[in-house]
Amino acid sequence: MYVIAYHLIFVPNPNLEVPAWAHLWSVNGGTGVTLFFVISAFSLFYTMPARQKQRWPWLSYGMHRFFRIAPLFYLWIVLTVIRDHLVFHATHPWWEIAASGSFLFNLIPTHQQGFVWASWTIGVEMLFYVVFPFMYVRVRNVWSAATLVVACILIWMFIQVVIEYLAIGPAASASMYQWFFPRFLPEFACGAVAYFLIRDVVPKIERKQEMARGLGMLLVLLAALLYLAVMQNVGQLGLPDNRYAKAICCLLLVVGLALRSLKVLVNRVTAYLGKISYSVYLTQPTAILLLEPVYRKIYLLTGNNLSIAFVGSFLLTCLVVVPVAILTYTFIERPGIQLGKRCYAWCEAHAKPVRQAPQHEGAR
C-alpha cells in the first residue's frame, strides 16, 4: 500500500503534485519494497524447518516458490503485452518476453526493470530464491545472520568496482548499479537477522511481559525515528546505501511488532492486505495509468487543494486496486499455490521407495 503512494506521484505524466506534509513520506514509498525483501527472507527461514521434514525439502521449496510467483506474473505478462499494444502502440520482441517468463531479465543490463511494470522486484526475488538455499545452510544463528549482512554489503561494494571496468557502456553500467540483484542481498539478509532474533531472543524476553511490551514499543519508535532521519538525509547509519539503513529500520519494526503487536499496524485489515499484497503490487501501476484522467479531474474539482486531491486520489486508487487484487488472488494466486502443493505431492506419490541396504547376519 505504501508503494501505491509512491507510484501515484511518478506514474502520471506530468507527475501529480503532493501536499508538503505528505511529500517526504510519499517519495520514499519505495521503502515498501525494502520491507517486502526483509519479510520475504524472514518467511523463507521461518517455513524451511517444516519443509525439511518432507522427503525432498528443496524440491518442495522450489516448486512452492515457483507456483507462488509465476502464475500471476505470467498473467501480467499477457496483460502488459495487450495494454502496451492498445495504449502505446508498442510491441515486445519474443526474447524480451522469454527473458521475463524465465525470470532471468535481471541479468540483462538495460532490461533489468522488466517490461511488466514494477516487475524488477520479481526479477530480484526469483534470483534470491536461487541463492537462499546456500544462505540457509550456512546461517544458523543471529551472529552468522549479522555476518551475512556485512558480507553481502562488502560483496556488492566489490561488484561495483568490477562494473566500473566492464566495457558495457554507461547505460548498461547505470542499470547494473541500480537494479542488479546483489545490491539487494543485504536487505534480504536483514530478514534473516529478524528471524533469528524472533526465534532465539524474543521468547526469552517474552517471559517478562511488561519488559517485552516496553521493548517492543521502543523498537517500533526507534524504527520510526531512524527512518525519519534517513528520509531527511540526516544520516544512513554509516552504511554505503540508504536502502540498507531503511532495511535496518524494517528489521527493528518487524522485531518490535513481534514483541508488541500494535493494533494500528497489525489487525484483520492489514493482515488481509498482506495476504493479497502481491496482487496489489502488480495491479497498481496499470490502475494508476488508467486512472490518470480521473486524478486530473479530482485536482481540478478540489480547486487544487492538494491535501484533499492527493488523499482522494490515493483512496480512489485503493478502491480500484484492492477489489481487482482480491479477484486475482482468489482465481490466480491461490489456485497456483494449490497447484504447487499438488505437483510436489504427485512427485512423492510416484517416487520409487528408498531401498534399504541389506544388513549382515552379524549386525542382526
* Number of contiguous helices: 14
Could you tell me the number of beta strands?
0
Secondary-structure-derived class: mainly alpha
Tell me the span between the first and last alpha carbons.
Answer: 64 Å
Radius of gyration: 23 Å
Q: Provide the domain count.
A: 1
Largest sheet composition: none
Low-confidence stretches: none
Assign an overall shape: globular
Q: Which series of helices and strands comes N to C?
A: HHHHHHHHHHHHHH
Q: How confident overall, as mean pLDDT?
A: 94
Helical fraction equals over 70%
- Strand residues, percent: under 5%
Description:
Helix 9 runs parallel beside helix 11 and helix 10 (209-231) runs antiparallel to helix 11. The chain has one domain (2-348). With 364 residues, the chain is mostly helical. The protein contains 14 helices and no strands. It has helices at 2-10, 20-27, 31-51, 57-87, 94-101, 120-138, 142-164, 169-179, 185-205, 209-231, 242-259, 268-275, 277-301, 306-349.
Q: Secondary-structure blueprint of this entry?
A:
Elements: H1 2-10, H2 20-27, H3 31-51, H4 57-87, H5 94-101, H6 120-138, H7 142-164, H8 169-179, H9 185-205, H10 209-231, H11 242-259, H12 268-275, H13 277-301, H14 306-349
Helix pairs in contact: 1-13, 3-6, 3-9, 3-11, 4-6, 4-14, 7-9, 9-11, 10-11, 13-14
